[in-house]
Fold each of these.
Amino acid sequence: MPRALADLLTLPIVQAPMAGGVSTPELAAAVCEAGALGFLAGGYRAPDALRADIERLRGLTDRPFGVNLFLPQWQTADPAAVEAYARGLAGESARYGTATGDPYGPVDDAYDAKLALLLADPVPVVSFHFGVPEPEVLDALRRAGTVTLVTATTAEEARAVERAGAAAVIAQGIEAGGHQGTHRDDPARDRAGLGLLALLAQVTESVDLPVVAAGGIMRGAQIAAVLAAGASAAQLGTAFLATPESGAPDPHKRALTDPGFPHTEPTRAFTGRPARALVNRFLREHGADAPAAYPAVHHLTAPLRRVAAGTGDTQGMALWAGQGHRLARALPAGRLVEVLAAELRAATTELADGGGAG
Ligand SMILES: Cc1cc2nc3c(=O)[nH]c(=O)nc-3n(C[C@H](O)[C@H](O)[C@H](O)COP(=O)(O)O)c2cc1C
């Protein structure tokens, strides 16, 4: 009997998968042990490394967890725009003492191999970012006993997720840290991103699937708000990025609450797809010129970002963060889940008692 998302959630809290080394097995395990749903990030991860992460996580907890995959990106980028952007990064190469990467690196993120791994050795939950998997893929995972989730950033995308046969949809608002999971990167939509509450109402009225709400959620009262607006659970990324179990570099964690980084912006500067990051020098100097060319720009800037991160240079790193970053708490992940759950209970009681009007 295929399971439903609700069967797997003790608390309506999901720790967002965060690629690039942030979502460690230790983070996911601490979250799962505290009663929320922990996630591993399969994006950018080699299949063998993902397999090892899953084994390690299984060794740390018996509770259900999820694995996230990026859909392959076949969207063609304009080679002239990629070349022009590469030329504009010459100063960065000089600054960091390294060449830019080959923009024509892999576009499929070893999706087929990672999918084969998850079908051969199923995990409780698999979520997808950057598109909708084939209905056959979602069906095969369902038959393997896996609950499937797919990110949507509009009601139309949510309907596509439902048509394909996913078990649930993640409604990701424009507040969210990291990449927007839009199914197709369209620069014409750059100013059309929906805030989470506006999106959530449209998605819940468009599909019959359970909805997980993501974007800017840092406190239990905000979880209560999205549950009141029809979500089945809330997915939090930036809140967990600050925990000691997260694999984010310490300068990235500290920057979340550093007054020197007062705000975030969605930018293509680092990867070629819109992703929300703290505004730093690299974003300011290159954001306006960055083409819609994912993963070409990701490959181009990877060596620069590696050196910047290695030297703790926050002005050259991709400091992914959601709009709620100032509210980040550097609590152990399990403790953070407890605090969020207590805040959620308090807010729910307050609402039931009539809130401020009571
Ligand atoms: C550092 C970072 C990395 C992320 N990587 C992924 C990822 O690999 N897969 C994914 O589906 N979402 C990813 N996201 C987006 C989250 O799933 C989620 O939408 C977002 O964190 C919610 O907004 P918040 O950060 O304000 O909580 C990432 C977010 C951050 C902050």
Amino acid sequence: MGMIFEDLPTTPTSEELIDKAFSRAARAGKAKGGLEAQQSMLQTAANIISDNLENVVTAWPDFEYDAHPFYYELADAIVDVDALRQSLSEVMWASRKAREIHEEYQPRLRKTDVDTARKHRKQAFARLADIVEQVDDHLLQINEARNDLRHLPEINPDEPTIVVAGYPNVGKSSFVNDVTSARGETASYPFTTKGIGLGHFERDHIRYQIVDTPGLLDRPPAERNEIESQAVSAIEHLADCMLVMLDPSAECGYPLDSQLELRDSIAAQFETVPVLTIANKTDRAEVWDDSRTDAMNADYTMSVETGENVETVLEAAVEAVDYEPTLPFEEER
Ligand SMILES: Nc1nc2c(ncn2[C@@H]2O[C@H](COP(=O)(O)OP(=O)(O)OP(=O)(O)O)[C@@H](O)[C@H]2O)c(=O)[nH]1
Ligand SMILES: [Mg+2]
């Protein structure tokens, strides 16, 4: 399945981890006496630290192998994946280091007097605490990344997907709501204030996903910031068909020329995806003339308002997606 970041556990802070390790160690020590108490304390503290640090790292999926390119790019737009990887590898280092300290001090707690053993054990604790504090920043950054990524909404990149683009007010949401059953499903992403509209419909027992992208694919590329640009790249991995919607009446508030420029830039960027130009609001056709119709060179015209051609557009989109379901027995080949 697509979303792989939702089950990430919270990452402990260095302070929480040290507290936990040392208080459990104290309890373990109390249950015993003499040298055994010192040995047990060291073992408990070192294990808790190295296990917990290791778990922080292994809780993360492998971005390259486990993440669909859509989520990989999306994650990279939201957090710096290289920096995150670096933090994870530092934490792994600290986990190994804790085990090494354990191995180094263990022999010193044997065949000696209790006071000497206690002295060594305290030294080992100081070094363990020091190791954990060294990755303090990394633990915080990992937890921040986890919080930022955890709430990415459920877009399934494996489902055949139609993406709707176009200037504000051209009728994107009206279209998505019209052709999908569940109304008004929106998903908020950290890089758009408007919320991505999500809908589903079925054709021939295949579930299609239709995604409305206000705040992203609704203005010229030059007006997008870096994060938005990267989110658009992520959408390239998601889209199986792109519908660029135009409002030739320009009642949306944007001149047709600007809308056509957006259409051309989207077609250029999404060169591997079929892009259909859809002129909406034909019920307002009296406000434009043939020169606009020629300029648009639209693949389809429709009116979501009257319902004219809406079904035709949807069918054209399904055809452009050209989805071949993988049968279960074919998957392993
Ligand atoms: N006359 C006419 N109005 C339409 C048609 N389709 C949508 N509208 C109207 O156009 C306005 C904008 O429609 P939306 O669906 O919200 O447009 P949008 O592209 O989702 O806009 P943003 O979410 O701001 O990007 C609404 O008032 C709709 O009722 C149509 O076919 N004809
Ligand atoms: Mg909308």
